[in-house]
Amino acid sequence: MDKKDCFNLGYIARRVGNHGELGFVLDVDDTNRYKKLESVFIELNNSLVPFFIKKIQIKGNNATVTLEGIETITRAEELLKKSLYLPLTALPPLKGKKFYLHELAGFTATDKAFGEIGVITEVLDFPHQTILQIRHGENDILIPAKEEFIISINRTTKSIELNAPEGLIDIYISKKEHDESEKETDEE
Fold first, then answer.
1. What does each of the 188 residues of the chain score in pLDDT, given as a tens digit?
2. Which of 92, 156, 173, 182 has the greatest number of CB atoms lying within 10 Å of its CB?
3. CA atoms 142, 143, 145, 146: torsion sign
4. In terms of Cα–Cα distance, which of 20, 35, 70 is closest to 49?
5. What angle do CA 102, 56, 78 make, to 5 degrees?
6. What is the pTM of this model?
7. Phi/psi zone of residue 118: left (φ > 0), alpha (ψ -120 to 50 degrees), beta?
8. Cα–Cα distance, 67 to 75 (Å, whole number)
9. In sequence order, what E strands does the chain have?
10. Are the C-beta atoms of 135 and 119 separated by less than 8 Å?
11. Could you give the domains of the chain?
12. Alpha carbon distance 136, 120 (integer Å)
């Protein structure tokens, strides 16, 4: 399984007990979806290795897990701080303005005032805000991925319609035009 075909479920935070049990921290919105999880991929030496789950108990965003083949403290400690992954196909489909960070790359972005502004090259996930990085000619336009700025997402046509804050796109487009006019002045 390739990492690009997976999403990060969380990580292994600690050892629990003396028989190889592990404490997972799940970095997901709804942990209830994972109460019957049968397997998980663990990143070991830059590869995703599948492990079958014998038992899982979830409380909040924490899970106590028993994995097949991990029955000693030593084996459990080898997995501490390792990242957990599941295939993208395990994600529930989203509707409306909700989206997964990985799914918007490649979508064409259109703004209510400017029309088509470019293609989303990346969705940047910062601690306090998620940003859409949109390629516009040779420059990038950065727009916060806030629900109030998203009019609609069309997964069929791979397009997103935005209503960016007034003046935000102008900053990027005006800067490009200003830079080009400075080049022309310098060349004269």
1. 888 899 999 999 999 988 999 999 998 888 988 999 999 999 999 999 999 999 999 999 999 999 999 999 999 999 999 999 999 988 888 888 888 878 899 999 999 999 999 999 999 988 889 999 999 999 999 999 998 999 999 999 999 999 999 999 998 886 545 455 455 555 55
2. 173
3. positive
4. 70
5. 75
6. 0.68
7. left
8. 10
9. 6-16, 21-26, 39-44, 47-59, 62-67, 83-87, 108-111, 115-125, 130-136, 139-144, 150-154, 159-162
10. yes
11. 3-90 (2.40.30.60), 101-180 (2.30.30.240)
12. 9
**Which two three-digit tokens encode residue 67?**
């994995």
Which one-letter amino acid corresponds to residue 135?
R
